[in-house]
């Protein structure tokens, strides 16, 4: 099952740089256009409740500027549901959100939050939006995703990335094994597995080599690299590493 692994580029942190000065530059829409031109498979944007990077009008402009599928990352709230229904992204990835966190620290507790998630997941699905759940790679969370009838899960690769940064090879290998095993299980359950968070040129290949994974979403590192080499070159290089891994 080693189909071409899709690359969704998360452009949140182009907006972070823009917002540092409160103006219009750099525009995440321009980033989305570059991703489309260079052969990226999708745009990911996380409309945080505090609007620290992507803002509501960015979604509208991104939708208008490119035909690439938009994967909207969102908290499971009525406010975000209404925004998703208004903008009709290709996919909505439900993520956990804490106002005070620096970034998304862990996976969504799809098991513990079933009753809160179900109406949101099902209304998105009823409106033709492909729902993904951003979860830890665990059997419990996969079973919860199955109960919620989510067609897609995205495994949070943050722990894998942190283990690598800490130089803890055992933990890194354990995390990788866990993501690989849960990717296999997801396929057995008929759920399409994706992965993302904290992926870089250095750590992407073992993840990209997991044959069951259909998509990676990568953002912060690519935007950081783009400062040095440009977004086009950064996306091309990531694409090349992903292709080499398969
Ligand atoms: C859910 C997720 O992993 C992304 O949203 C990504 O981390 C970029 O957004 P933040 O840096 O705001 O978490
Ligand atoms: N869902 C993960 C994502 O979109 C990108 O995460 P990161 O590469 O910005 O850490």
UniProtKB/TrEMBL annotation:
Annotated residues that bind 3-amino-2-oxopropyl phosphate are located at: 10, 21, 198, 219-220
Annotated pathway: Cofactor biosynthesis; pyridoxine 5'-phosphate biosynthesis; pyridoxine 5'-phosphate from D-erythrose 4-phosphate: step 5/5
Q: Sorted alphabetically, which InterPro entries does this protein's record hold? A: Aldolase_TIM, PyrdxlP_synth_PdxJ, Pyridoxine-5'_phos_synth
Question: Which Gene Ontology molecular function entries are recorded, alphabetically?
Answer: pyridoxine 5'-phosphate synthase activity
User: What Enzyme Commission number(s) apply to this enzyme?
Assistant: 2.6.99.2
Tell me which residues bind 1-deoxy-D-xylulose 5-phosphate.
12-13, 48, 53, 103
The protein in question is named Pyridoxine 5'-phosphate synthase
């Amino acid at each position: 099952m080693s189909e071409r692994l899709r690359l969704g580029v998360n452009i949140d942190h182009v907006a972070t740089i823009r917002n540092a000065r409160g103006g219009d530059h750099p525009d995440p829409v321009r980033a989305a256009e570059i991703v489309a031109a260079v052969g990226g498979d999708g745009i990911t944007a996380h409309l945080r409740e505090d609007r620290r990077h992507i803002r509501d009008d960015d979604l509208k402009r991104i939708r208008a500027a490119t035909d690439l599928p938009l994967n909207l990352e969102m908290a499971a709230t009525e406010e975000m549901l209404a925004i998703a229904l208004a903008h009709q992204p290709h996919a909505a990835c439900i993520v956990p959100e804490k106002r005070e966190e620096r970034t998304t620290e862990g996976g969504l507790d799809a098991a513990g939050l079933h009753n809160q998630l179900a109406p949101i997941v099902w209304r998105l699905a009823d409106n033709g939006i492909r729902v993904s759940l951003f979860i830890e790679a665990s059997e419990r969370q996969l079973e919860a995703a199955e109960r919620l009838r989510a067609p897609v899960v995205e495994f949070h690769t943050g722990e894998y990335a942190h283990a690598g940064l800490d130089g803890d090879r055992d933990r890194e290998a354990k995390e990788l094994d866990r993501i690989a095993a849960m990717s296999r299980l997801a396929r057995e359950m008929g759920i399409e597995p994706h992965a993302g968070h904290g992926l870089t040129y250095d750590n992407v290949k073992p993840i990209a080599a997991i044959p069951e994974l259909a998509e990676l979403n990568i953002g912060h590192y690519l935007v950081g690299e783009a400062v040095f080499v440009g977004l086009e070159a950064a996306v091309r290089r990531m694409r090349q590493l992903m292709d080499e891994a398969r």
